[in-house]
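#data-curation
PF: Archiving a pair of folding outputs for the training set. Convention for this channel: one message per protein, sequence first, structure tokens after, nothing in between. First:
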Amino acid sequence: MNKVLSAFPLLILFSLQTYAQITNSPTYVINGNITGIDSGKIYSLSSDRKVIDSADIVKGQFSISGKLYLPEQKVFRLNPGQWEFAAFVDAPRITFDIDTAGAEHYYFAGKDYPLIRQIKETGSPFADVYDSYQKGTGLAELLYFTRKLRLAKNDSVAYFNEKVDSLRKALPPKFKIWVEDYVRQHPTSIPAVYIFKEYFHELGKNSSVYLRSIISQFSGPAKSSVYYESLMSELLRLENIRVGKPAPDFTLLKRDNNKFKLSTTLGSVVMLDFWASWCKPCRAGIPGWKKVYAKYHQKGFNIISITDDKSWKSWKIALDQEKMPWTQVIDDAPPGTLSGRVGQQYNVHSLPYFVLIDKKGNIIIASGDEHAVKKEIAEVLK
């Protein structure tokens, strides 16, 4: 859970899908107050980071408006500072109260994303539900103490570390209970679809059986949402990569620009290792995988590492540092998307992620749990 939670701000930052059509108002107006920026500009951004609308910030206040044919979670950018934040836009008039104090820097794909984690949003029904979700699961408390930990001095670090660890351990069952209860009680709710989609990705487990059991409960407006359509597409992908099914073939480039095709590995046991140079848990696990590779390679075991790096330079630097003795390829992202094509094909939502394939090309296990994958490798090659 710890590894998945570390990506939580990015999940919020990059979830830019729309979910239902508004019929009573084609526009929105957002009035805002900012502490920390007296004058500048605010921009609303598209999913590919292009400016849609903008407004001036004068004496810490702004009013930005735009078209609102579909409710959505939008990303906004503040200048100066390039600070970004996400907010729900699903009503004609909404108010933002923003404080840049405590804003943070997150690094994704080798780039710095200054991020304001939380704002106070008034007038959005979706935001109200999401706030209840954070408070009801304990996620709000975890985020609060995580920020405290980052700012902690020597004498208080141990206390906040213990507090954060305790909250993280308590989170999984609280997530499950809150989300499943909310879906059961609000099967027509579009926010319920959105929150379940986020929760399912936070789980880090690609279970088509579980996904089908939940989405079958949705009805009415919820089923007409883009979030529901996205979950259905995800279910189809999961059905295609479930245990016992043939691993989807792909072709990617190696460091030397030569092509690598997965189907050329038939006849050996192969593990697909989805990682990136900027992923700390991925890098930390490399020494362990070197031991596994050394132990089983002569028995017909191979690893194919697929990086999600968008920068070849960062990828090559990491390869020179890690010196992994197996095949390395780089995923490619379709225009306007942030995740790699093969990562999407294998339904990868968090890194690291592993897919073990038998000699016939069928999937043995697909999981972010490296211990479970290592156990399967030992069983197959004993």
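PF: Second:
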Amino acid sequence: MELTSPDMDLLVWLESLPAGPKCYWAARDGVLELAGWGVADEITAADPVTLLRRLKQARLATPAARYLGGLRFDPHVAPDARWRKFGTGRFELPQLLLCRERGRLRATAFVSSAAGAARLQKLLARTSAKVAPLPSLKLVAQTPGRERWLEQVAIVTGLIRHSHMRKLVLARCSRFQLSAACSPWLLLRRLQAGSAGCGLFGFQTKGGATFLGATPERLYRRRGNDIESEALAGTRPRGRDARADRRLGRALLADAKEREEHRLVTDMLATVLRPLCARLTVGARPHLRKLDSVQHLFTPLAGRLRRGVGEADLLRRLHPTPAVCGTPTALARGRIAALEPFDRGWYAGPVGWFSAGAAEFDVAIRSGLLTGRTLRLYTGAGLVRDSDPAAEWDEIEHKLAGFLDRLRRSA
């Protein structure tokens, strides 16, 4: 049932609420923002096959119902202790869902009693919260460290030269200790202030662990049977001035290694989407997508889905893309599990929402896991046969620095 809600900052509202599962998602174009508290219904399972089957069987009672959630990067590998409460994947319909779409805020309670709705109505009065200063962050560990990273990149490039593998994405986990406890919604407000062109997300479990991030990469957006996706791979930093920025952009467009990495992502998405679509259009050539601290090669794809194709089909086929895994997918994902000394969890997995008539999922890069006073940030680099280990280390250092810079800006 629809409730009466004043206009408010949704991240501040989440900060003001009592403990409990909370979620947040905002589209990178600013058109849609979602915030939820509590759980009215959930779709989850211990294994990916069952989870996707339940997702396919989901019947949404009203047009206002939106399930929010995500999947592990590798749902075939059991989560470690830090990621256990997130599960293989989880999609939740909040008890109280706030949706701001094209400037209009709507609050919906998914409860069966008037008393329950009245209790949720009181939560909508919490339009302000004390915003504490951001604690300082101290880097405690990088997993793997630089020496081991360089060794791993050399191993991977050797495998690519002498096997069927053409690309592999290697990630690193940087662990920070906060000087004081910190709200994840404060962190997201900081990211929001400096993340133009990025989608924002935050998923908090009942135990308080929160996976959050500001990602530039969309997996897909569906409106009815119309679908949009994109290839986003190949990276350069932004320049200190306009002239330097143009020079770096031209170098990225001309770089054979970066274009090959990008082409692998584009080809995979086109190959996967064609049998699912009655028609599909793929951008003729990559162009630049410029963000605050980096610029990427970008190619759009758009199509019309065949009748009956839904979220379970799209998530199963599209995830993981070569932009976050590699190619061939099974071989690359197996090598990642063998090489990376940590559990990616939901990092590089799909996060987003779906309703009866629409859906949008992003790829959860530029992201981290906040547990108590520990923040783990994840960054990765795509490796092909000609990758230079030191240059790839510099790339993930630059990505991390950009993320930290946005966190430290004034909200």
